[in-house]
Specification:
alpha/beta; D-Maltodextrin-Binding Protein, domain 2; 2 domains; 5-stranded mixed sheet; 12 helices; about 20% strand; globular
């Protein structure tokens, strides 16, 4: 049996759902690979690059800024599962002058947030009072929204934001996927350490493609697995979240739209202030993956 470390670099459905389904449904075992799922959220890039990673956004940023030759071998979605959750308001424009809890600018989610804010006509450095915090389960953000310490928070998929907003009388001002598309999660490796055609890597790719088929062909099983992440939500809320953000936007076979990837790389490089040193075709090498 092959073995490999596979690290997620964020928490929630966005990063973990496909790998979780592959693990729970024994797809790794069927592909004859033992996968050690690792929490790489706090790992530095040097440690992360010695195994496979789910976080394509972080991999792309480090390829653009550090020249690390990451390649993506399968893609789960190009709709990043992040939302702007606010105490009040009807649009992103209402964040002007407000306190927004958000990821750091050099992180993938932080970069995506800044791109979306700019597209809404807001300068994240001058028009919004950004409160940078470490990503986690966003529970502290909810407490700070409740007590008025912050006015809004950029949150991820450890919750169903629309259900949280309805419970507290808050507002979801925007879902990132409606404003910015980028192939962000899947499987990537650094060929310096792991060859893209390594048998263990290709086994993981096949297992994740099986999991993607489950997402589209077996909603009941998928919603049950989603419930493991959304423990504070009802089954109906988990299903509504699946219907709104998972089923319509996750790929069926791990293949990205390269035109979407090209536009995303241009936007990310511009936000980071670095040259476009990689094309979508070079970074997203999914055509070489064994199905």
């Amino acid at each position: 049996m092959h073995t490999i470390d596979l690290a997620y670099v964020g928490r929630g459905l966005h990063e973990e759902l496909v790998a979780y389904i592959a693990d729970q449904e024994d797809f790794y075992a069927r592909e004859n690979v033992h996968v050690a799922l690792r929490d790489g959220c706090d790992w530095d890039t040097e440690r992360l690059r010695r195994g496979a990673t789910i976080g394509l956004g972080r991999a792309l940023l480090s390829r653009l800024t550090d020249g690390i030759p990451w390649v993506a071998l399968t893609v789960n979605t190009d709709g990043p599962l992040f939302w702007f959750l606010a105490r009040s308001g009807t649009s992103l424009a209402d964040l002007a002058g407000k306190r927004l809890a958000v990821h750091a600018p050099h992180t993938a989610p932080g970069c995506f947030a800044r791109i979306v804010l700019r597209r809404a006509g807001l300068d994240p450095d001058r028009d919004v009072r950004c409160v940078v915090r470490q990503p986690g389960d966003y529970g502290m953000d909810l407490r700070h929204l409740s007590d008025g310490t912050i006015d809004a928070a950029f949150v991820g998929s450890t919750m169903a934001p629309e259900s949280v907003a309805a419970e507290h009388g808050w507002r979801v001002l925007a879902w990132v996927g409606d404003h910015f598309r980028i192939p962000t999660v899947g499987v990537a490796v650094d060929p310096t350490y792991i060859a893209p055609d390594d048998p263990a890597v290709q086994a993981v790719v096949r297992a994740h493609r099986r999991a993607l088929r489950v997402i589209h062909e077996d909603p009941g099983t998928t919603v049950r697995h989603i419930g493991a992440f959304l423990g504070g939500h009802t089954a109906d809320e988990a299903r509504a979240h699946y219907n709104s953000f998972i089923a319509p936007y996750f790929t069926t076979g791990g293949q990205p739209d390269l035109s979407t990837g090209t536009a995303a790389i241009t936007a990310v490089a511009a936000e980071l202030g670095v040259p476009e040193t990689v094309t979508a075709g070079e970074f997203y090498r999914t055509a070489a993956a064994v199905s």
